[in-house]
Amino acid sequence: MSNPNKLVTQVSNTDAKFIGAKLSSQVSMSRHESEGGKPSLSRTKDGKLVLPDDEYLKLKQKRSNSKSRSSSARRTNDPNEDIISHKSHHNYQKDPRAKYYFDVDDYFSKDHENNLIIHLNIQENHYYITREQLLALPESLLLCLFPNGVFSNRNGDVIQTLTEKDEVYIYNFSNKSFEYIMDTYTEAAYDLENYSMQKLYDTYGDPKKKNGESSGGFFSHFSSNSSSSLSSKQTEINLLNENPAIIVLREDLDYYVVETNIKVNPNNHEIWDILKRSCKLSVGAYLQNDLDIYDGLYCSNKVSSSSDPTKLGSAEQHLMDMLISSGLKKGSTWGQRSQDPDKTVISSLTLIRLYNASTKEYREKVAKNFAAFASSNIDNKLLTKTQSHNVLTPTSSRKSRWAKLSAVTSGSKSRSRTPNTEDSINGPSLAGKCLYDFEPKPELNSKLLLFWKKPARKCWWGQVEMRVPIELPFHVELQKDPADDSLTIVKVLSGGYSKIEIPVRVHIRHVWTLEASIVGA
């Protein structure tokens, strides 16, 4: 029996590293190269290089056509013209049937010559993304979208040089999963652009300045090699803590159904085919509805054959602990889970946004604690000022002229040293505070960096026995053997439907792919 995942598993780890480079090269060629490249030259009798007659006529006609098209585009707005034009925003017409994952106005306001717009067709659902958005996805997700590392059209032909007119057709991938991926990474990219760590430091205080650490400068060039190696490691840890980080967990599940304790007498291949297909569909629906992520670890043959089936092995437990520390708690479910319509394959995907300083939850906690601290600081200063005005002083009749003068002088000095309540937020009362004083720095597992740009795979087998309900498009007459409780279909009647339960044994192959992705790194 052929492996349903052959298209995915045939790409080795070495070849997979070049997938991003292949896709990048397909969309990085210039316009002149995409239109056919330079024409070939021929040499005359006197040794001069000239264009052949046919090439010269083609080039001349091509230039005249381009001039006529550009002039007609200025006069009329022809709907048959190219939908996308880099030169003018007004020539661009959005596709009403498609979903865009970038701001069109912002795209044309920036330098976009090397950031091509890519049209994707996934199960007849149309999407538009940019080249930068596509290549920002991690390797494990690119491998799902493009198993062979190339773009293909509707007919399955490889697109040698991608242009804005091409429609990239993606096979065997759920459009819901693609939307789930793009929504997650679009939100992460937005947080990185609009809520950078530098902005948080400018608002709430920089921890480096509080600790007296140097931010670099001229004398940083004289540091030793050992400190530079430590700084590179620390830089990676800082990226994990400060940039949006996403853990990608993907599962490819193959299941093989074996019917047990059922017979067809007399033997009929057509009835067996319908019976087997109905069993596979029923088992697939059951597995697809099992959304718990960690159920797959407990159904391993290694775990089920042990003395305690509820206890995981050391490798499985280590993997589970690492995922739990990343935010994937017990009882967590898959973000997307879909059944292949043509194979006994179920693909699952979950994207875990690590809780660090770039998340919305962390920013809200900092803002809440900062507001509470500033409010209490203002109240304390108002109370101090009120108490200073209520202090009793001796009567002026018992003071001499010089005593009165000294009292007025000292009172003016004390009032000048009292700060205003309006500047209490940025006043000296908050000096020495930093971002992590209002909310502690989130603790992350640094071992996740081992999976950054290095996807890891884990494969194991499991077995489940169950009784599945099926529906047959004909009436059947069953006979049960009391010795072993086996069922035998002894008669088939045309017309109607039959609902029966079939005992089956299901062999399940799990393949997990784990990768850490840091946006903007």
UniProtKB/TrEMBL annotation:
UniProt GO cellular component terms: phosphatase complex
Q: Where is the composition biased (Polar residues)?
A: 407-426
GO BP term (any one) = response to hydrogen peroxide
Which InterPro entries does this entry report, sorted A to Z?
SKP1/BTB/POZ_sf (IPR011333)
The source's domain of life comes to: Eukaryota
Disordered as annotated region, ranges: 22-92, 389-426
GO molecular function per UniProt: phosphoprotein phosphatase activity; protein phosphatase binding
Q: What is this protein called?
A: Growth regulation protein
Source organism of the structure:
Hanseniaspora guilliermondii
